[in-house]
Amino acid sequence: MESVIYRAKQGEHIPSFLGKDLSPNNIEVFTNHWQHPGSISPPRWSSGNTQAAFAIYTDGSKINSQVGAAFCTFGPDGDGEHLYRLNDHCSVFQAELTALHQALRWKRSNWPSEHFHIFSDSLSSLKAINKLRPKNNLVEDVRNLCDNSISLHWVKAHIGVAGNEAADRAAKRASEKPDIDIHLGVPERSFRTTLRKLLHAEWQIRWNTDRNGRFTQQLLKEVKPSRCISNTYISQLVTNHGLCPQYLKRFNLKNCNCRCGEDTQDDVPHYVFSCPLTSHLRTSIKRDTRISQILADKRLETEVVQILSYVYHQQESILELVD
Ligand SMILES: [Zn+2]
After folding, report:
1. What is the pTM of this model?
2. pLDDT (tens digit, 9 = 90+) per residue, 181-221?
3. CA 295 / ligand 1 centre spacing (Å)
4. What range(s) does the RNase H type-1 domain occupy (predicted)?
5. What is the 271 CA–ligand 1 centroid distance (Å)?
6. Which domains does the chain have, with CATH numbers?
């Protein structure tokens, strides 16, 4: 997966990843422009003062898989709004930053010498701008436009601040525009999620159709990266691969039967659920206990470990060689 991400970031086309075409793979790539630390001035922050003469409210939004960014301007010569639709793959974070970026560009070309107060309800974008060395070119662009004529404000969303409400509505309308105005790359995080989903789906298909591991497949029908059985005795039970006559015969290791003579299967579940030779170790586990119940109960798991380790240590007296 890492190699696919690396190749995609290099701009390489990946025509088939598990049968899916991942090109054009326009991933958002960070280009490091070195800046002298002395030339980086921190953005100016202000609190309160929502009655500024020149104010801009920005917002980004993602609704029904469509993304919009907008900013609303409030000044002595009247109010205005600017709406941009972004690619559907864009994140809300990208939309919020785009709104700020466009607002700053508009300000610089129309009112270069006036002081402006810019309001955003996106704490994550404002925090990103505040970083000395952001690892995102859009954040860098926004930062570089924040000169002394700009004061940034964080405004709480959905508490009825008129400018913020207007920007919120404008961003929603921006996402409904028929055409894309600004094309941005796929955020690396979304690309990773897509790859992970594809890999997971493929794993499930293989798990459902592979001829190996059928015993386990009946128990654990759904594949999960979070599931990890580290205890060898528990995994013996889940896979039915462990010290038992059935397994030893199947792999031509030893021709033997269980000395109890009760069960022709003589597999791992035989020792866990029914063999009389291990009955003294069985207190909570019953014949009808399901393996899924055991996996969900630490007490039952401990019992399985005790039973199977007993079988391992007492194999000489439990297994009966067949001549
Ligand atoms: Zn037995």
Report:
1. 0.65
2. 999 888 888 888 888 888 888 888 888 888 888 888 888 88
3. 23
4. 50-176
5. 6
6. 51-185 (3.30.420.10), 214-321 (no CATH)
